[in-house]
Design brief:
Length: 510
């Protein structure tokens, strides 16, 4: 074929990275005496490394035409195909599972969803838990880099709200983070390399700091390492079934602080326009995220004087401070789509008397975190654009002849930016309806399909265990439902606008 749909060199590079990553759990398994798991990961690494090496030789120097379209297809193939490779050592290490379960687990980890079919942590060896957390961590870094290096120049992934250029319209570099590159027209490969070398030390350093801090607070080094990776990737993956452990409320506080990096891209990198501190202070995503994190727990706390009237007889009323912290941490966790539940979340529910706390968590997950972060959902920047547009419309009702100021950029944000945000919100809602309809064929209840769909589309896998009246089991789902949810996770990570841009005929004309 003269025209290739994939950027083969980039895809082969990602395969090579996967092969190298397999050596980490292989070495750990050898250290802790898990010989079967060690062989599974080591042999898979050797096989994949050999195949990717030969493929790299065959594709070396092959030019990439139409980089925008090609890299989007490569990104889609990464989330669909590479989990097949990542699942091979899992099947060999966990002999009592199917390949479908292993593939579902790896799609969930790579998209930072954190949905798991292995509900009993004791069923898996520590090296397999490490592999799940590591794949999630790598998936989070992939989301960081591709959002800035690929999505931003194509005006996708939330950047379309800020920029007047056509959505998915080409390789033009705008006045965003992607412009911080030498030269006028950097290629996609140059952008990927530049931001990988720039962001990897930040991502790794933050993970290391959190790992050491959690270890000092009393968690075992292995559990602390997995929790640190899952926090930075907002994957919610845990080798012990959650954050409950020796770190206590101080450990939750540390995780809370590091989840702030999922509220806005300005927390770890800034647009090419001025002081870093000022950019973060004025960033609408960060401010809106903090507002939600503060307001929701306060409302939960104040609801106590209404809900306490329905407290079951004999039930002990929890302390107000514990209840407030449980609401604060859980709100931050589900807003950033990490899905960690506070040890005091039960206290918050009992204190407030909430009858349907899962509905609140569903809404937070749909809102999601910041653009170009590891969080999923609609994204705070789009929510803010809709808010600004609604605010302006209300102003016009009171003052019909008023003229809004703040410059051309802000006018675009309130008009075209809000329009694109509304289009995305409608696509998001249509995606929910479509996936729910497909899951309905498997004789699931309305509540079950709603929770599972939102959990997959917002990449908040742990939502299934806390949002419904009774915890839902991914393992109990039929294979067809798992395949649909896996595809929904990929859709939630890439976003529907990327799929629309891919099928746009303009992007296929040479």
């Amino acid at each position: 074929m003269r025209r290739l749909l994939l950027d083969l060199p980039l895809f082969v590079l990602l395969l090579a990275v996967a092969a190298l990553a397999m050596l980490v759990p292989a070495g750990f398994a050898a250290t802790v005496g898990e010989h079967q798991e060690m062989r599974a990961f080591f042999y898979s690494a050797v096989l994949l490394g050999t195949v990717s090496g030969f493929a790299a030789i065959a594709t070396h120097g092959r030019p990439v035409r139409r980089q925008g379209r090609t890299h989007l297809i490569t990104l889609l193939a990464t989330y669909l195909v590479i989990p097949v490779v990542l699942a091979v050592p899992v099947v060999e290490a966990v002999r009592d599972t199917s390949f479908m379960n292993a593939w579902f687990e790896m799609v969930s980890a790579l998209t930072t969803t954190g949905a798991t079919v292995f509900e009993d942590p004791e069923r898996l060896g520590r090296s397999v838990h490490l592999w799940r957390a590591l794949v999630g961590w790598l998936g989070g870094f992939l989301a960081w880099v591709t959002a800035i290096a690929i999505m931003a120049p194509l005006n996708l992934g939330g950047f379309e709200v800020l920029n007047p250029a056509p959505v998915g319209g080409g390789n033009r570099v705008f006045g965003t983070t992607a412009s911080a590159l030498p030269g006028d027209t950097p290629t996609a490969a140059e952008r990927l390399m530049h931001f990988t070398t720039r962001l990897l030390p930040v991502y790794t350093g933050l993970t290391t700091v959190l790992w050491v801090a959690l270890t000092v607070l009393g968690e075992t080094p292995f559990v602390a390492f997995c929790h640190a990776m899952s926090t930075m990737a907002t994957s919610g993956i845990s080798p012990v079934g959650g954050l409950s452990g020796a770190s206590g409320v101080i450990g939750e506080g540390l995780v809370f602080l590091f989840l702030l990096f999922a509220l806005s891209r300005q927390t770890f990198t800034t647009d090419a326009r001025g002081d870093d501190t000022e950019a973060l202070r004025t960033d609408p995503e960060f401010r809106l995220g903090l507002l939600i994190v503060l307001v929701v727990p306060v409302l939960i706390f104040l609801h106590h004087w209404v809900g306490v009237l329905d407290l079951p007889e004999g039930a002990e009323r929890p302390g107000g401070l514990a209840a407030f912290w449980g609401g604060l941490f859980t709100t931050m966790s589900f807003l950033t789509t990490a899905g960690f539940e506070s040890d005091y979340w039960d206290a918050a529910q009992l204190w407030s008397g909430l009858e349907t706390p899962g509905l609140m968590l569903l809404g937070l997950s749909i809102f999601g975190g910041g653009v170009a972060t590891t969080a999923g959902g609609v994204k705070l920047l789009r929510v803010y654009a809709l808010y600004r547009h609604g605010q302006r419309e209300l102003d016009k009702l009171v003052f019909p002849n008023s003229v809004a100021g703040a410059g051309a950029r802000d006018r675009h944000f309130r008009r075209q930016g809000a329009y694109v945000a509304w289009v995305f919100f409608m696509l998001f809602a249509m995606s929910i309806a479509m996936v729910m309809a497909m899951l309905g064929f498997f004789h699931l209840s309305f509540e079950e399909v709603t929770v599972l769909t939102v959990a997959a589309l917002s990449t908040t896998g742990p939502l299934a265990s806390v949002a419904a009246d009774t915890p839902l089991s991914y393992a109990a789902l039929p294979a067809g439902a798992k395949a649909i949810l896996a595809g929904t996770m990929v859709l939630g990570r890439l976003e529907m606008l990327v799929i629309v841009a891919l099928i746009n005929p303009l992007n296929w004309r040479q």
